[in-house]
Specification:
The protein has ten helices and no strands. By secondary structure, it is mostly helical. The chain starts with 7 loop residues before the first helix and ends in a 10-residue tail after the last helix.
Amino acid sequence: MTIPRFTMAELRAVAQPPSTMNRRNAEHWAGALYLRKGSIYLTRLLLPTGITPNGVTWLMIGIGAGGAAVLVWPSWWAVLICALAMQLQILVDCSDGEIARARKLFSPAGVYLDRIGHYTTEALLPIGLGVHVDGGLGSIGGWTTLGALTGVVVLLNKAFTDLVHVARAAAKLPMLADVESVTVMRIGLLAKLRGGLKAFPIFRVFISIEFGLLLLVLASIDAIIGGHHVLRGFTAIMLPLAIVLAGGHLLAVLLSSRLRAPAPE
């Protein structure tokens, strides 16, 4: 297969079009803020190798799972490595789509693998934290159980998003546009609560980058005061927080326009 050659300006135009950079939900804030500035150079480096977009996605999956697995080592350095791995995972996640657009290689398998990568990483992170605060793999106990249960709820919460697309496909409805109007809740009080969450986005706490950065801050406090007191405190509230967020997400989906058929003309 002939691999196209691009100048950096041409590559940006093809791999980072406005339709990608301006996506409301699919584009992570870190991507728009700084990671896309680096991912284009990674894309340019990877293109001549002939690696497929799905090959890059597999790399993303491995980085995410590996970063979460490092957390089982009960050390501040493990948390630092995990936080850096989560940054690298999203950098590579940006690059796989850029390579797909540059080489015009698109497939449902790529979307499927991308979902697997994020599901796997975000479920493994709380499990790794539970093992971490238990003292490592040699002393698994109640904290690990809390982490595992939190991982299950995180998976459910992510499924609530993807099941919208499953339900719409089963009902033969068109795909949703990635815009504000299709996600707005119609009930006044809940709409106000939703607006408040934009100022305090706690619903993002279990997303890989945010989770890694939060753990790094908490672990640094623990390193100063000694012990795992702060991380254990977060682990203790992690499960109820995940349950509340998942319940709120489910309610938001049911009260939005996402599951409604368009009115007949």
